[in-house]
Amino acid sequence: MQGHDLAQNGGKAAVAGGRLSHRASRLGFRLFFGGPLVLWQGAFFVAPVAFMVVMTFWSVRNYQLSPDFTFSNWHKILTEYYVWDAFLRSLIGAGLAAVLSTVISFPCAYYLGLKASPRVRLLGACLIIAPFFTSFLVRAYTWRTILGDQGIVNAFLGWFNLGPARLTNDLFGTVVGYMTLVMPLVLLLQLFSLAAVDRRLIEAGQNLGCSPLQTIYRVIVPAARNGIVLAAAFAFVLSFGDLISPQVLGGSNPPTLSILIVDQVRGGLQWPRASVIAVMMVVTLTAVVAAAMRLAYRGSKDADIR
Amino acid sequence: MSYKRHVLKGYVLLVLAFIFAPIVVSFVFSFSQNRFPTLPLSAFSTIWYQKVLDEPAFAQAFGRSLTVASFTSAIATFIGFGAAYVDYRYRFFGQRVYVAMGIIPPMVPVLILGVAMLMFLSQIGLSGALYSVVIAHVVLCTPFSMALNRLRLSQMEPNLEAAAWNLGANEWRTMRMVIVPYCLPAILASVFITAAISFDEFAIAWFVSGLEETLPVRVLNMVARQSSPSVNAIGSFTFTLSLTLVVLAQLVLIASQRRASRSGPGT
Fold first, then answer.
1. Whether B249 contacts chain A with CB within 8 A
2. For the domain that residue A141 is a member of, what is the CATH number?
3. Which of A22, A48, A152, B115 has its CA 20 to 30 A from that of B181?
4. Number of structural domains chain A divides into
5. Residue A39 is part of which domain span?
6. What pTM was estimated for this model as a whole?
């Protein structure tokens, strides 16, 4: 703002009319660069999401949507057993993906972020970024080639007269899909937060007699807690909303919440019911993310001894 | 001590193997003759690439994806850059809400975004066309552009702008001569990244595109129906393409940085 005052002082010498047009031009400048975000996201993000909430109260008559104010969609969805069953399955699948990806990634991020030489770290980071440029759809599909009933793993098992093992069309397949989706992101976020840990903290811990394991869970994990929790929260959000893993690798039956939404929208034009499920998902995700944020920043004031 | 290090190294390789397994397998099987994956590999062949090239539906879908990605990238980069600058330069009432509008969309699952967009756009008569996909993709991509540009702006020397004003430049001129050149790397990065996100996005596009299938939507519809190695061919092709684009973007960046450092410090 300081620079702006300077510019204003310069303008004082100008005649009043010139200042007015200058002010108008400044307003135009702000609107030109700042306005589009409000217009676009207001019209095509805020409005659709708000409309979706309104839609939960509409009704469907003779395959026609009609504006209404009824709670019957809510009643219908919230009292169905299969909805809660799907809800639980989504929750378990996404929870597993978040926990597993966090635990599996950590030693890897620990090595690359703190132990490896800068060159190896850079190479590792590049390798982790590469999957972002492949289609997740194709990767999930390829897991079916690997794990499917006639897939590579089962062909391999067949040579030893083992199997066939059922690796797709169940929760295992779905979670493999979720992991494929979230592992690169979790690894990358953990790598960033571990690489940013102050080395002096680690040395101090070692000087005070921490064993290597103690250093990890008493110094490194608390110092990198924000990033680790954030990564896990991302993993949960992405998996919870993913429809490819349960469909391509999970066999889509029994369904997850995302499969239910697709069925309601594509199958029977049951948009109001789909909206109810979508609102359920958004509420769940908001609660989980809020809890994660509290966990990440809880007591961080006390931990901040700098 | 050193054997522990080796165990750790082996573990890292194992995790990377998990991440790369589907990419490598897809690549390998895209050159395999058999429709179903077999071990040992059947004869080498490019039949699946030929198949993809022969079917006009793929070329059309590819063209649509490119169109959508170009428009999305241009619009999202402009909106994101402008919003990042306004957030950086001004303090105003409702700024937190303003910034939130530029952050939240990617945190909402694409599935829900897709459903919400479908309902809303079809209600106002804008769904089922290629521009519907652009509308939706801009919502999703703008936050990435805004974040990249905001990060770049926060690294800018604050007096740079004030100096331009003192030298008599107005906002527009300062924007053109100082801000945009400084942000150019972020702008370029945002052009490529938003294009890549849009090119790869299938959930929203699946809902709002109607009959105008983009490439990922086409793949999704194929995967849902049957097992087809053409998917491997498409995947390997687009992977190679996007990797080339990224490498090109990197080269442009490095070249521009070299030029900047040669023309003197301070840029």
1. no
2. 1.10.3720.10
3. A22
4. 2
5. 2-55
6. 0.85
